[in-house]
């Protein structure tokens, strides 16, 4: 069972333990119930149908259940689907746990934690440093486990922390080339910009939006948190407003959910770095499965474009 | 001196005490300095030019100075201008104070205060009532004195409170026709929606934006304040998030500065009431000086439209 | 049979007389014909499928047929569907008539008629009054029976008259708060603004667009009717053009189908009142079926938003 | 005086009888009054300034006055201006009449009239023919004298009729290449499409918008007129609605003032022909004064583009 | 077999040789494979389903295969579908060839060729004439066989050449009415404007985009080709840049894929002629199957509009 | 004379040799001619007026003339202006040359040249390397001297080369963090992306657009050049089309002048790097003159935003 789910080409046989990510009941055109289930392992997810399902089966195959599935990968309207031949719930004897089947960031929580800690350690402005450290500590567990989004980019366990670490490394490289940038501001803005997601989203697995997330959004949530943190720490300098502004404006435009456009140089650059890292993540994931001389699936948040892999990219 | 500034038609002589609202130095095409000054009394403001100004005169005619001016109203490119014949700074003996010359809301601060207090008193939900009362009390003085905006609508002393009172009365009438509306939410949302302007703007006279106003805006400022108020009052109910959402979404669309669109019925209605009262204020002020059968000046925030006064509106 | 169609929750059994609103033939993936039918009673409508339909059945289950249906409500992709177990056409002995099963306005045609008549009676400007009375009389029957639209809001029998009455009451309340408004203009504009729908649409049941409706639209139709009415009544005052302008501009923007934006104060306010009443209708209908703490279905004309019902709205 | 106004290059001396198209009073930066006047002859118009004007001069140089002017053409911010050395009102002895100085269409009113009459004569559908003839007859004088617009294209005496004749000839040529087109509809649509301008605009000279023009616009005005004409002629066929639709939709898009987009083939083609003839007129007028190898002034309604005249266009 | 595919109404029996245009495998809701195939003859194409297909059948019914099909036309969601009763691959004895079943332009390749040659022959500017002749000769075969697009308009064999000939005839008629137009430029621009499609597209049958077509597009491809042609012919006049500009700008706007808007009069007119001929083609094809008094299917590139055929268009 | 032009604050006296960048004649409101001249030295430029200019003076003060100017800096509507007290043309004895007064990149042409050469040297793909080297060599002089634009960013001597070098260094840093990027493609795309500007623009001083630049633009010009280079070098690999695509798509969106959006990962990243370096340049130049706690002038290409310099950025 070494070969992972998404390593299988169309036509290949699959026999794997997989995690049910979601399961939706439907009525087939012959009037009988069926289930549409999304199955995943660490390599990603795939859709499958379960026809003529009994009520027992519907109860058996709930989200977050581990199952053993045998079947064949086929192509349905340009997307891969799994045609199930056999399926059964796993038992404790199988020795498979949920965490074995979740996609996770390529670096560990420890690495993320120590890298971010180091960046905070190097900050020179004490107000910025204290606020950043305070908020990271307050929400550390979520920061290390949550995805950065429910879909599109970094939508996996520890995606949030991994995205932040990539952005910090990128910011460091850019700040060396443009020394007028205030590294403290930039690093703090990066660490805090999406931290509100630990309140906006429900958790690392089967992620959805909380009521507070829907009504306020991670941007307003974190702007409030920065205000509270400053109050608790007794910090009154302009750094507080500036950090709030960096978080507030990091979507770059009003129509993308930032109530103010960037008005600080580091806010503008934070937005660009966020954009660049998210796009690299989407592009790399989309092109991973594409052969030279072919086009990728359409990537919705990139204006629904297909990307081409040149033939000389062997 | 009974006849106010804007009651004069083109061609009429003026001899009035006026307040300098702003004064900008320029260089005329003959190379000599001149001042463009905006003069106001309670009826509104008018532009005037002061030619060949000496350095002494520039210092003498600063904003917030009271002057006595004699001159003639004329029409310059479709806008009224005052052609100054004589001007001198007022002296204490003239017995004119700044407040005599400022445009103010048609109802007094006391009336505003007692009306709003009454609306809060009638609220039934204690969480909503307590947060609203707490924040109004905290920022009462500004609430009673600030304008609702630097331009466009309710841009006069006590404009903020007057706008809120008009909206409250309108909300009450609407809620009687649509009884499914939650009056507590609606009234509280109206009282709080622009309260952040007392931090966003510099003050009731010669109003400009503060740094915090520029970088965060009155929406984010008040969302934070609601969070702090709830913390201080020990309130944890969903009312907190809902009130924050009402303030957050009251501009109605992302591109108008709300990071979330309304997702609560009362939030949608709050936005519509705000809109209706602001438009009525702009329309009434623009049409006040227009004769039946004529078109008004263009009103910029109303898509730059001119409005027509029907000939039968005698 | 006291419990109406939409009062049933998912999983409940249904046994009701229902009206077929529409019926569309399809071919199932097994190559056999089936019918998609929309069934309704006064509480609203629901979709159902009829599998393996014979030609006789297709003829039997035409729109505007009353049927007796037994089955179960289930959830299909987030929308309710009726799974039919038994179905038969009703016979005269069942004693059920079409009007028993149509959704209608919450107030009667008589009430609508007398309220609108009263508003006309109170008008002071004789030109406005006579044109309004003339056109209402000419199209009274349609005005009392038509829906206000084919979908989105007030899409039920007498929806047009009900929408107008709500708007009139709202306009009256607003005009009391803003006494500069010309009530005659406002009331007449409200009564006439959608009256062209009695020509644009096919009728109160199974409503569709007429050719004239498609090619000209209710706005141009009614602008023409006002011109004709004035000619027939020998009225030449500016009121004619102003009333035409109110109808012409009531969609508010060119891209929403008004060839001119409002250029009269009452035209602007008419547009806002129309908007507010339509939104209240959509919001109340969407939230009616939602439990506290849940989100509604997406409402397409409200920018496709979901609305949340607070948990304290018990 | 053979050389016309716009035939003069920058730097040349001018001594001509000219017509004052408009005159606006201003106050110079030295506090003295001046007049900005637009002067025209048949070749076009030019701006000039009259400094230190007395009240008598202001009264003397009103719009539609003929004056004799000596001066020099110079270039002011990329536009030609006339620097006046001497100016006096013309006297009857000068023997110059207003019509000598107005720009007019290159073909006479008689030609326009007989060409359009011929096109109507050739129509085969009696309903279309009768409505078209009726309306042309009703508004013939205005049709032959009005401009097609106040600015941008065909903004000269008889511009409306000339524009229509050009479009008719173009439509005839197109209909020969695409024989599926209904020539009667196309010709009638062309003759009527802008005829409402004789009500929308004030007249052939110093043209401005009437109140009816502002509030309803030429499209709605003519749609009403077609309805009235059909009533008076007792015509009830679908031709009436179709002709109304052609006029209604001829601006092509909602945001360009058509409340319906074209839904008839001939309506779509009418829009394209209108567009093509207007653009040819604008392009020819703009390029007339440009030398090979140079760019024209920016043409506002053509997306503010400059057009280049190739060097090989000698 | 005289009656062609699209001449059949819903409900009629079909027994025809048809060409498979495309075939896509799917999985039915009973878990069995099926094929969605598009069948065509010279009158157009229609969709059909083949249920429970074996692997052999999938191989047998590939695109560009000729089959004999018996079945019935029915209506599926407003579009025609063919319900197959019998199907078999054709054999050589049937005597049917692919070209018998392809939709082609209504004029022959020879006619296209001789008409275009004549237009080039009449050019007076030798630089324009030589470049045009050179490029037409280089890509003549593709020019005579390719469609003008993969869908929307002129999407049939020889569609490109036919579109160009229609545009040339139209341009000639227009240039006679507006003699300021440079006919050489206009004719050359028309001949070259879409010629890059012979590189952008894969060929006349089952047309798709090439990699070069996707990454560069026919506009950039042809601009390059004009540059190369001029180099090879040793032509250095401004005509080269002007012709490149005509091709570059013929989509009219940046957002439609032209990196420059038209800045030459003939470039603007070329864009309008292209537009007019494409729209006539779409409208005629859509209205061909519509009866008087009915609306056509929605035409996507015409803003998704339906067009109405008047009842008097018998 | 050590203190440069833009180092002077408002109110300070200036006595400097300056270069006339542009000179425009106007007519003052007293009827007398004047000149608006832009004066520059290496620190930037400033506007000044020369009143009552004689014809001789107009000839004397042409663009690219060196003058000695004494005067005072003052503030005119929020922008700095120079009030001239004395002015005279420089003579050879003054020993000032044009190059002494031009703003130039902070690194020398030699440095630019050797850095770019080194990047080309390190390329591994011979096709990419040869095309890049060939085109750089062909246009080397312009590449080292031209600005990157006529305004907005890098609008100074050697701005093009400096912009490319900054982007190359940035690309190198990014490629180290995201090793999936093809460095050869990225570096070549950066070197070529704006190289067409040496044909689009007139030269390094008083830069304007050439006719070819206006009609084709630097993007199409360089796409052609890559095609020609590949022909001359006999290169036929897919690298040619890919490099053309990188140049073609580097503006990122159709409405920004790219006829194709990026469809290669490196094309997307090239666009982001171009964007980031241009914005850093604009931000640094705008903030250079701003004191902590103040807002910059509005930066037009950054959505016309003002940027704030935090008070703690001492």
TrEMBL record, chains A, B, C, D, E, F:
Q: What class of enzyme is it?
A: hydrolase
Q: What is its EC number?
A: 3.1.-.-
All residue ranges annotated as the HD domain in the record:
163-279
Q: Which GO terms describe its biological process?
A: rRNA 3'-end processing
- Single annotated GO MF: 3'-5'-RNA exonuclease activity
Source organism superkingdom: Bacteria
* Pfam families named in the record: HD, tRNA_anti-codon
Q: Which PROSITE patterns match?
A: HD (PS51831)
Q: Which UniProt keywords apply?
A: Exonuclease, Hydrolase, Nuclease
Q: Which SMART domains match?
A: HDc
Q: Kindly give the SUPFAM superfamilies that the UniProt entry links to this protein.
A: HD-domain/PDEase-like, Nucleic acid-binding proteins
Function, as annotated:
Shows a 3'-5' exoribonuclease activity.
Protein family (similarity comment):
Belongs to the YhaM family.
Q: What is this protein called?
A: 3'-5' exoribonuclease YhaM
């Amino acid at each position: 069972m070494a070969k992972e789910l998404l390593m299988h080409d169309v036509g290949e046989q699959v026999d794997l333990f997989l995690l049910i990510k979601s399961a939706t009941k439907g009525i087939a055109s012959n009037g009988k119930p069926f289930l549409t289930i999304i199955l995943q392992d660490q390599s990603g997810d795939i859709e499958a149908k379960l026809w003529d399902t009994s009520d027992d089966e519907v109860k058996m195959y709930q989200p977050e259940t581990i199952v053993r599935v045998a079947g064949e990968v086929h192509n349905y309207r340009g997307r891969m689907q799994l045609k199930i031949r056999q399926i059964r719930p796993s038992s404790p004897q199988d020795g498979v746990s949920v965490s074995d089947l979740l996609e996770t960031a390529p670096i560990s929580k420890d690495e993320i934690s120590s890298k971010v800690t180091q960046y905070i350690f190097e900050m020179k402005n004490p107000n910025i440093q204290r606020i950043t450290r305070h908020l990271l500590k307050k929400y550390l567990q979520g920061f290390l486990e949550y995805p950065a989004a429910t879909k599109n980019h970094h939508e996996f366990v520890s995606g949030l922390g991994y995205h932040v670490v990539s952005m910090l490394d990128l910011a460091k490289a850019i700040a060396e080339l443009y020394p007028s940038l205030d590294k403290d501001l930039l690093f703090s803005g990066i660490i805090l910009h999406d931290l509100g997601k630990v309140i906006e989203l429900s958790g690392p697995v089967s992620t959805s939006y909380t009521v507070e997330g829907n009504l306020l959004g991670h941007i307003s949530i974190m702007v409030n948190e920065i205000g509270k943190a400053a109050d608790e720490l007794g910090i009154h300098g302009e750094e507080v407003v500036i950090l709030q502004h960096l978080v507030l404006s990091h979507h770059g435009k009003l129509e993308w959910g930032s109530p103010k456009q960037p008005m600080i140089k580091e806010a503008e650059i934070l937005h660009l770095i966020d954009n660049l890292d998210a796009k690299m993540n989407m592009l790399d994931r989309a092109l991973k499965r594409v052969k030279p001389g072919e086009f990728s699936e359409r990537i919705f948040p990139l204006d629904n474009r297909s990307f081409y892999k040149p033939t000389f990219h062997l």
